[in-house]
């Protein structure tokens, strides 16, 4: 955002103009509340400046506004000093802020410039604001939240009802727990020129169809089933076949022209009792020749597979040809603590890894847990193994080894159900087999998976997900 600020100024939109519009957006959100008495908490930087602008506009709209300032008002610099100069109403020290009978609080303490944990008067004010029960509108980010990681920077952090942010969402608005601390998010256009925004070359996007839809191929009228892509799924052993079956069904629903499950005869008999459109093939002497001869474009290995030598061999065979490979579940047990080994196996091939947090730690180590954010952990892991990483959860991150990433916010909590991850692995393979580039295929699959869960609603079980895809795909096509 600092770069956007600079580029905007170079294009003739000065910081003061951006700040005026930012304050306007905050005041606009505040006017949604029937609030008479409003306290604006103003910090020492531009976030506080936005607060002073909002205070002026709200006073002009006949609200009773008090600005409570952290530190010395005379110490404000630049645009913030100018904004403060435009405020002629009541001002108190932050320590003296009175939260009794206040109807609304505007948190303009810290935004993008937060550099250390809240302490002293700032921390006390956040706790008192929180305790008084009035609704809270945060300017840019709830104070105390790191907008890059989505984690509070210390022990004290505001929890807002509404967060008004500017120009673009920041990762911390979408990643947890940040999303929960922001409340409803309002993204305001404050007049930064599109070229100024584009000039910073952001490589992280909220996961929406606009990011990937042009990369997902439409079936050709002149095509046939094999030109739509053939997916192979490595079956789990007897009495562990459900997970791979879910992957196979999802791959077919995603639009792969053909899907084959490969496994032992006993396992295939179980599949045969459930499946019709999906082909079954006994993997007697490995499956390399089948993959080569039948031009399999994408392979899923891991769901229900067990961490056995057979699964390792299947994975090696999958990686040996010019195929795209989705690795899930038990692959991460096979490579526990051995990210380098996994990276060597992937080599120059195209692979997608779909770990949840536990599996991620298993492969990439415990220290991958905290530092520095889910987004950066996924990006670092992607670069380390040379693959696309889908780090799952309520804020699934898809990270490519080239640094691009998407963050999803559309999955409902009831998607956290056994087998949902197996469906996702198959969806990714189904899209990749049709020729979608790996990063876009993985991002699209994550979004479609979330939308399918939304379409089903409560009571969802993983078996329902493949069947919900046609409606989701159809409405995407007609958007
Ligand atoms: N394009 C832009 O960049 C725009 C930015 N705007 C606002 O500018 C904000 C960023 O402004 P700044 O960079 O001035 O940063 P902030 O206003 O977030 O805070 C910076 C100041 O706080 C101090 N500080 C940091 N952590 C502290 C702590 N824990 N305790 C006490 N002091 C602490 C810093 O030393 C610095 O003086 C954004 O969040 C947004 O609200 C808007 O005015 C609109 C345009
Ligand atoms: N709280 C949550 N809200 C939304 N989606 C979630 C949540 N927790 C997990 N998920 C999603 O549910 C799926 C679970 O996958 P996974 O953990 O691999 O389970 P399984 O191995 O049983 O299939 C993933 O797509 C994940 O992103
Ligand atoms: K703030």
TrEMBL record:
Residues 1-198 form the YjeF N-terminal domain. GO terms for molecular function: ADP-dependent NAD(P)H-hydrate dehydratase activity; ATP binding; metal ion binding; NAD(P)HX epimerase activity. Catalyzes the dehydration of the S-form of NAD(P)HX at the expense of ADP, which is converted to AMP. Together with NAD(P)HX epimerase, which catalyzes the epimerization of the S- and R-forms, the enzyme allows the repair of both epimers of NAD(P)HX, a damaged form of NAD(P)H that is a result of enzymatic or heat-dependent hydration. One of its GO terms (biological process) is metabolite repair. PANTHER family: ATP-DEPENDENT (S)-NAD(P)H-HYDRATE DEHYDRATASE, ATP-DEPENDENT (S)-NAD(P)H-HYDRATE DEHYDRATASE FAMILY MEMBER. This is Bifunctional NAD(P)H-hydrate repair enzyme. The lineage of its organism: Bacteria, Pseudomonadati, Pseudomonadota, Alphaproteobacteria, Hyphomicrobiales. CDD domains: YXKO-related.
